[in-house]
Design brief:
Blueprint (H helix, E strand, L loop, with lengths): L6 E5 L4 H12 L3 E5 L3 H13 L4 E2 L1 E4 L3 H6 E2 L4 E2 L5 H7 L6 E4 L4 H12 L5 E3 L3 H8 L5 E2 L7
Parallel strand pairs: 1-2, 2-3, 4-6, 4-7, 7-8
Antiparallel strand pairs: 5-9
Length: 150
């Protein structure tokens, strides 16, 4: 089976079997998304794989409303509200791969198109959005908290 032109999400992909799987799928041409709530472990995995010329998506952006993000989200996802958009655009390297999600995938596609128009080189809209993620990975949903940054 060829993984070229496939986008594959790996939860817990920053170490162990998850990291090995991300490495192998990346070598086989897949666009790999790593879900990892620990930012330091995520950065270490990204650096390790980048050194092997395997590029992964690590910036996961939630474009739903702030209350929805606060209640439940993909681990490590950053809220991206209209109010925080200008600061995000100013602070983020356009070469940084991004994953964008909303409820069902429609608004995230618009956000992805906008980010591409702003010069981002690799933006993926999560097909099916958060509802797909919640059903496919019920044990990989963060809940609670009020640490919104944007």
């Amino acid at each position: 089976m060829s993984y070229a032109d496939q986008t594959i999400a790996i939860t817990g992909g920053a170490s162990g079997i998850g990291l090995a799987l991300a490495r192998q799928l990346g070598r086989e041409g897949a666009q790999v998304i790593i879900g990892e709530p620990d930012a330091d472990r995520l950065k270490a995995a990204q650096d390790t794989l980048s050194a092997e010329n395997i590029h992964i998506l690590t910036h996961v952006l939630d474009v739903r409303d702030p209350d929805s993000h606060r209640q439940a989200r993909i681990p490590g996802a950053l809220p991206l509200s209209q109010a925080g958009l200008e600061a995000f655009l100013a602070a983020t390297d356009r070469a940084q791969p991004l994953v964008v999600y909303c409820y069902h995938g429609h608004s995230s596609q618009s956000a992805s198109d906008f980010l591409n128009d702003q010069g981002f080189q690799s933006v993926v809209s999560l097909d099916g959005g958060f509802e797909y993620w919640r059903q496919a990975y019920p044990d990989q949903v963060e809940t609670g908290g009020d640490d919104l940054a944007g």
